[in-house]
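Researcher: Let's run the pair from yesterday's discussion. Sequence first, then tokens, for each.
Model: Starting with the first of the pair.
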Amino acid sequence: MLLLKYLLMATGASLLLAAAIILVHDLYLLLKVRREEPADGEVETAEAAEPARPIRWRLGLRLAILAAPPLVIALSILVIPSGSAGIRVSQISGPLPGTLYPGVHAVTPMIDSVVLYNIRDSVFTAAASDDPKKKPEGLRSQSKEGLNVSLAVTVRYRLDPNQLYRIHTSLPESVDEDVVAPVVTSAFRELTTNYPIRDLFSGKRDEIRQIAAGRIAKRLSADGIVVKEVILRDVQLPAEYARGLEAMLLKEQENERLTVELEAKEKSVKVAQMEASSQRDIAIKEAEGQAQAKLLDSRAESERQKLLAEAEEVRIRRVASANSEKMRLEAVVLKENPMLIQKIIAERLSDKVQIMMIPADVKNFFATDVLRSAMTGHSAQ
């Protein structure tokens, strides 16, 4: 659309320029001819002077008339750039309600004009400064104790496009200096007088910012200004109070450091005590475990000895029983076979004798006499 507007303006301007050039050229020729006419009393030359060309007023007028429509159409096209909005102002009735948003709009040439406003975010900044040589740019206020403080404040805001008619008809042209700055200054000055200076510097700084942001947004919204954000960047304290506060903060920091070190040492002592107690408990547990192991070992040994004794007793009993049974069986066998006695005696008398001849007559065998003497002695006893 801008290209069309510029083309129409170029076409109209070209036609007007052509009409002007034609008229100027004809006028120049006319003046040249008149300057070359002979004066009164002079003899005319052989060649007659060229007749003067008439000025082409009609052609110039036609070109001017042809240039009017493109220029009128171009002037009736209004393109509002992005980030801006406009208010239509009539030369007859004054400002007209309604907002012209970014884009193409049609206006009445030579009657309507458009006042553009920036609807992007704007920033109002007040920098804190405690140097008396510099111009006080910061927001100066007082604390509850009556001490002077300088605040560094930043407010981000924008104009409400829906209320541009009201802004144009009721607010000053410099919204930043004449509207935003007084509202921000008064809001913070009303708040800071209710807080001690130490709260302004550290304790309730964010609380003050939030309350001030609410008040600023409420006041400016009534004038068609939308507040996006309020930032309290810095609080500049008086020099003497700042030095005293710094010394006090250093002492508090030192006390906190000593407290932390003391707590660390107490924790180290507690850890050492816990480690010693843990080592003692471990030693006690190990001693108890060893005693329990020894007791279990002694009990196991006692059980083992008891089992061995019982086993030995059982073995002895079984051996005795076996011997008794053996003797009984041997007595039965000997009773049934008396000749075995002689064999047994012979085997026990000499291990060198491997073969023994026993006479058939048992009565004449010496073993019979031995047995009889043994049996007789035993009976006598």
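Model: Moving on to the second of the pair.
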Amino acid sequence: MDALVPAFMVALLAEFGDRTQWLVMLLGDRFRTPAAVIAGIALAAVLNMAIGGAVGMEIAAYIPHRPVQLMTGVGLILAASGAPFRVKPPPTVATWKLGAFFSSAGAFFILALGDKTQFVTGAIAAGSGSPWLAAAGAAAGVTVANVPAVLLGERWSQIVPLRAIRIAAGVLLALAGIVLVLKALEIA
């Protein structure tokens, strides 16, 4: 449980207002089959976070706990640093002909590959020693954060103050990162 809940919370916070969520709004509007889009996103999230967890497990084998804790804190601060900036629009999905499930899984996997959520998942996996719980928690957080965007499509951005949520999430991620950095440096 040391990895599951933190990974879930970080992924949930990091996804709000992110490019992937913007993509999900477009996918929801394009296909109008929420179950297939959500299933595709969930599969892509599981695969991406499994990669992050596996990399974290590999890192943990070579790097001691304190530097991993420092890396996790820096990762959280970096994840938070993008919060005040405008999000670049994702690629268009209007011409994709693979169907709702495969288009959603493919587009989401590609866009989320190597992003901040995957990086932080790897760091949490390395620090906790539970890579698969970190991956599962992060995949669940990503999926939960994106379900409303699928269901509401572009209305999601009109209903929810995504910029304010991004900034609040950024502040929370930065604070958590600062605490971890201070602990790793034995200042706190």
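Researcher: Give me one sentence on the second I can quote.
Model: The two ends are 24 Å apart (CA to CA).
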